[in-house]
Design a protein that fits this description.
The complex is a heterodimer of chains A (890) and B (109).
Chain A lengths: L9 H10 L2 H22 L1 H20 L8 H19 L1 H29 L11 E10 L2 E5 L6 H9 L4 E8 L5 E4 L2 E4 L3 E4 L3 H4 L4 E4 L10 E5 H8 L8 E4 L3 E8 L12 E4 L5 H4 L5 H9 L4 E5 L9 H13 L9 E8 L3 H4 L11 H31 L2 H9 L4 H33 L2 H5 L11 H28 L11 H34 L9 E7 L1 H4 L2 H9 L4 E7 L8 E8 L5 E10 L4 H5 L3 E4 L13 E5 H7 L8 E3 L7 E7 L14 E4 L13 H6 L1 E8 L4 H14 L8 E3 H6 L3 H45 L4 H35 L11 H27 L2 H6 L2
Helix pairs in contact in A: 1-2, 1-3, 2-3, 4-15, 5-13, 5-15, 5-26, 6-11, 13-17, 13-18, 13-26, 15-17, 18-26, 18-27, 18-28, 26-27, 26-28, 27-28
Chain B lengths: L7 H13 L5 H12 L5 H14 L2 E6 L10 E6 L1 H20 L8
Antiparallel strand pairs in B: 1-2
Helix pairs in contact in B: 1-2, 1-3, 2-3
Chain lengths: 890, 109
């Protein structure tokens, strides 16, 4: 009589033996198996298995309606317990609602945060070979300055691969927005920010989901482009665009492939890939010549990815890097004693772990840790809350627990009954929580705060379902076991006394600890954000319009334009620079003269400006003079430096100090020193900075090929008064158009583009604030339960006190005293905790506010207020009530 | 159909057991009913009905031989009891009588 035989589904067999009377199941299984074997022959295994399940359940169902259904105690007890649960659910409706909603909100928060974390932790893992792909980053060590760059020269991939022999493939991504941003087809024209020039083997290394086209040959021909689905839809709707030609700014491109849009969790986002052959041959297939060697030192333009053999040890890359450096870079004349180390970053670690500069925006480990903490806390608070409320509920049911005991119920039966209740509650809460999370992720703008869409389908993955299957019983036990144990334990003689409220007070303590902690952290984050937005950057960022001027013909018209603009009363000044200030600077190293007149290597940021820059930006010159275009030697040979550079070089008399690229060359001279200003976000320390005055552009020179003329850009920053802004902007636009520029009028406010450096932080702060609110809300529910419990316990005591002449005020103090003590201790501990956490967070900002103690007081006050409000409704009622009622209680 | 009457499905199952004459058990009864009625029937329904008929005393059963096809499990072979046969006949009689009372309409049958 073995219950299982052959390969029929075991679980079904077990169920059948469990629920069908012993004298029957053997024959039933026999019949099931007989049919099963026949079905395998006729319709295959899957069908047979499916029907086996179906038949078995039908049998079980049939037997359940039949009187020979196994009448064992546990099933009928289960029915009984469920009935009691349902009755209590409706009888104490308000408690049930509070209890379930608290838990449901907790679960919903947790689900949303888990979705976020899952997305955050699985960056770039959708590429099949992600565990073998690495990004090359280069570390420039010059003197005391060490800088790690995310980008490298175009030559690194090819020559490092030749040098090592171990590297299976390399792919270069040149992210380009100049010349390859506008595409037009059949009258539809659109600007795209993320377009990359890429090696043809990109699809072999990075697996893409291909919709149309052949990835092997897609980018092998010149003038070919592979586009994303989104890109394709913009121009072609649902048609297959492969083979069509799309018009770019410089030339036409043949569409050879359409790939599915990249998921949100990828660190390098692009809408279209253009073949690298678009670039000049010396870049596409570089040869080992002087240009290449110089570019290895000076060009940092490409993201280079390497495909390594399986289980490659990153540390062994050091020797490859060293030998590459010796072979290609060490002998460069402009080396200035600097060295360069190339290092590998595993693809899936880039998002959270990369420390490289000049990279695309990426994630922050602090927030991932923070959100994990919050997810656990919210769930913890919700569970604690549930425990508190349940104990309260159960304590009101002394009789319904005591009577079964009198009648001989075992303790485990009582526990089982109370646990049934928590399982039912947890399941209801889970369903509600899932629904809530679904609504929130689909119908609110939470995506905006998370900076990514959170597809709810992630929840349908097997792991998520497994977690839910394990989570429900676990949570039921965590949340329900304590109340169940506590309530079933007491002997009949002993009434529930406030003795077990010690644990409950501890739980409320934890809730308040977490809540206060979260509130004060949120406040401190807010202070820091405000500090960063208000801190003087060393220049005026308000009322500056930044216009992008593209194309040599347009650049030549700038002086005329500026003159006309200045005629308007609201335009104060204008300046031309090479880059967008506050967005990017170039980085290089050269030899700089030190105090003793010797040339030493130094690396710095540099920026091309004109003589109006300092005035327009409202910067301050603390020594020397501004550029003067009337002095012919100023162009390319006069430099302005910032204070930091002066400090780093230890100059006592900075004016007249020299800088040169190589010995024998005519050096440049420092003509002025500028007060430090923040050209990067306040997260970063101010670095050395040098300003150059470029020689006037001569576009007729042979250097200016047609292509270069088209691609070159200048930034025109216009300083306006801030009055009648929209009218002023319209005026500027009119003048711009009057010049006959072929490019659309595009401008940004400097303020906005600088603030965008903090967007991620502001969003995270809002999110944490949101979850802080929920934490507090759930804690309030818990407190509500606790107060109810305390009052319930002390009804008689209060009645007696009132009879003996206590006033309402005295009674209220009595109730509040114990809770306020808990909140007070929680507030102190929470302040210490959040002080530690926020100290760590602020380390991420080079310039930060000191921690404002005010935040802790506000948070504590808030907690007290909430505790007071939650408790007052109930306690006032009791305090005012007629003592006779209280004395008659029970 | 309370009391002693037979349900339609019960009648089919009883008839199938009669046809199989001692060889009737879950699967064979299911097949027999499917063969004659032309509809597909769930095994569970057959079993429940068989047991119910046995409870009513219309069928009797004994455990019979096992085959390897069944994973060495026994089968319960059903046989009709005299009262079962009486019930079947009674049901048949009712129908016969009623059919006779139907006017011989010219329906082309």
């Amino acid at each position: 009589m073995k219950p299982e035989t052959s390969n029929t589904p075991r679980l079904v067999n077990w169920l059948v033996t469990r629920f069908i009377p012993d004298q029957y199941w053997d024959e039933l299984l026999g019949d099931l198996e007989e049919i099963y074997q026949e079905r395998i022959e006729i319709k295959g295994k899957h069908f047979a298995r499916f029907m086996y399940w179906f038949d078995a359940f039908h049998l079980l169902y049939g037997f359940s309606s039949f009187k020979i259904f196994k009448t064992q105690n546990n099933t009928s007890m289960l029915k009984h317990n469920l009935k009691i649960v349902i009755r209590n659910l409706f009888r104490e409706a308000s408690y049930s609602i509070i209890n379930i909603s608290g838990l449901a909100i907790g679960i919903a928060c947790c689900i949303i945060l888990v979705l976020y974390l899952k997305s955050e932790l699985t960056y770039d893992q959708h590429f099949d070979k992600h565990d073998r792909i690495y990004r090359v980053v280069s570390q420039l060590n010059s003197g005391e300055n060490i800088n790690l760059f995310a980008q490298t020269s175009y030559g690194v991939g090819q020559f490092i691969a030749e040098e090592s022999g171990q590297i299976e493939a390399y792919v270069r991504f040149l992210m380009s927005n100049r010349g390859y941003s506008d595409f037009e087809y059949n009258g539809t024209s659109k600007r795209w920010d993320d377009i990359a020039l890429v090696d043809p083997n990109v699809f072999e290394v990075f697996s893409h989901e291909i919709i149309y086209g052949d990835p092997k040959t897609a980018l092998t021909e010149p003038k070919t482009i592979a586009i994303s689905e989104r890109f394709s839809k913009t121009y072609f709707g649902n048609e297959n665009p492969v083979g069509k030609t799309i018009k770019g700014l410089l030339s036409d491109f043949k569409i050879t492939l359409v790939f599915a849009d990249l998921p949100d969790n990828t660190h390098l986002k692009y809408d279209a890939l253009i073949t690298y052959q678009e670039l000049p041959t010396e870049r596409y297939t570089p040869t080992n010549n002087a240009d290449l060697r110089s570019s290895l030192w000076y060009t940092r333009s490409d993201y280079t990815y390497l495909l390594m053999p399986k289980d490659y040890d990153i540390d062994s890359f050091k020797s490859i890097s060293d030998s590459f450096f010796e072979a290609y870079m060490a002998d460069h004349p402009d080396r200035y004693n600097s060295t360069v180390d190339f290092m590998l970053e595993p693809l899936s670690d880039i998002h959270l772990k990369s420390r490289a500069q000049r990279d695309r925006p990426h994630g922050n480990r602090f927030y991932v840790a923070g959100f994990t903490g919050i997810a656990i806390f919210v769930l913890l608070v919700a569970c604690i809350n549930y425990m508190n409320l349940s104990t309260t509920r159960f304590s009101k049911r002394t009789k319904s627990i005591a009577i079964p005991k009198v009648l001989g119920a075992h303790r485990h039966q009582l526990i089982f009954q109370l646990l049934t209740e928590s399982v039912v509650f947890v399941i209801i809460a889970l369903v509600l929580g899932l629904g809530l999370a679904f609504l929130v992720t689909n119908y609110t703008s939470l995506d905006y705060l998370f900076d990514k869409s959170l597809p709810f389908d992630l929840l349908l993955s097997p792991t998520a379902i497994a977690i839910a299957l394990v989570g429900v019983p676990l949570m039921s036990i965590v949340a329900g076991l304590y109340p169940a144990m506590a309530m079933s334990k007491f002997s009949l003689v002993r009434k529930i006394k406030s003795k077990n409220s010690g644990v409950r007070q501890g739980l409320v303590f934890v809730q308040f600890l977490v809540s206060i902690c979260v509130i004060s952290c949120t406040l401190l984050m807010y202070y820091q954000m405000k500090f960063m937005q208000e801190k003087s950057l060393g220049f005026e960022k308000e009322n500056k319009l930044v216009l992008t001027v593209q194309g040599a013909s347009n650049i030549e018209k700038i002086p005329v334009l500026v003159n006309e603009l200045k005629s308007h009363s609201n335009v104060i000044d204008a300046t031309v620079s090479l880059n967008h200030f506050g967005r990017s600077t170039s980085f290089e190293q050269a030899e700089v003269e030190n105090n003793d007149g010797e040339f030493v290597s130094h690396s710095y940021n540099w920026f091309y400006i004109d003589e109006n820059f300092i005035n327009t930006m409202g910067m301050e010159l603390i020594a020397g003079r501004n550029f003067d275009p009337t002095i012919p030697t100023d162009a390319n040979h006069a430099i302005l430096v910032n204070e930091t550079l002066v400090k780093k070089m230890g100059w006592e008399r900075p004016l007249g100090k020299r800088l040169r690229y190589q010995a024998g060359e005519e050096p440049s001279y420092v003509v002025g020193v500028m007060k430090d200003f923040h050209f990067q976000g306040l997260q970063h320390e101010v670095e050395s900075m040098i300003f150059w005055l470029p020689a006037p552009d001569d576009f007729s020179a042979s250097f200016w090929t047609e292509r270069r003329r088209k691609l070159t850009t200048r930034m025109l920053t216009v300083n306006i008064t801030g009055q009648n802004v929209s009218e002023t902007i319209r005026f500027i636009e009119d003048k711009w158009k009057a010049l006959g520029s072929e490019h659309a009028f595009e401008f940004q406010s400097l303020d906005d583009s600088l603030n965008s450096q903090y967007t991620a932080d502001i969003k995270q702060m809002k999110l944490i604030g949101l979850f802080a609110g929920l934490c507090i809300f759930i804690s309030c529910l818990g407190l509500f339960g606790l107060t109810a419990f305390i009052i319930e316990q002390r009804t008689k005591e209060i009645g007696v006190r009132k009879t003996l002449g206590a006033t309402s005020a005295q009674i209220i103090t009595l109730i509040f005293k114990s809770v306020f003590l808990i909140v007070g201790i929680a507030a102190i501990l929470a302040s210490l905790l959040s002080f530690g956490i926020m100290n760590k967070w602020l380390e991420g900002f080079y310039y930060h506010d000191s921690i404002d103690v005010k935040a802790f007081f506000i948070a504590a006050f808030f907690a007290f207020l909430i505790a007071f409000l939650t408790m007052s409704t109930q306690s006032f009622k009791v305090a005012r009530a007629n003592p006779v009622k209280a004395l008659r209680h029970e | 159909m309370k009391g002693k009457g037979l349900g339609e499905f019960e009648e089919l199952v009883l008839l199938a057991v009669c046809i199989l004459d001692g060889e009737g058990y879950g699967v064979s009864v299911k097949k027999e009913v499917e063969k004659h009625s032309g509809r597909s029937i769930l095994l569970g329904a057959v079993h429940i009905t068989l047991y119910r008929l046995q409870d009513k005393g219309l069928l009797k059963s004994e455990l019979g031989g096992n085959t390897s096809k069944r994973g060495d499990r026994k089968k319960r072979l059903f046989q009709i009891t005299p009262s079962g046969l009486k019930q079947l006949k009674a049901a048949q009689d009712v129908r016969q009588k009623m059919w006779k009372l139907v006017p011989q309409l010219n329906t082309g049958i």
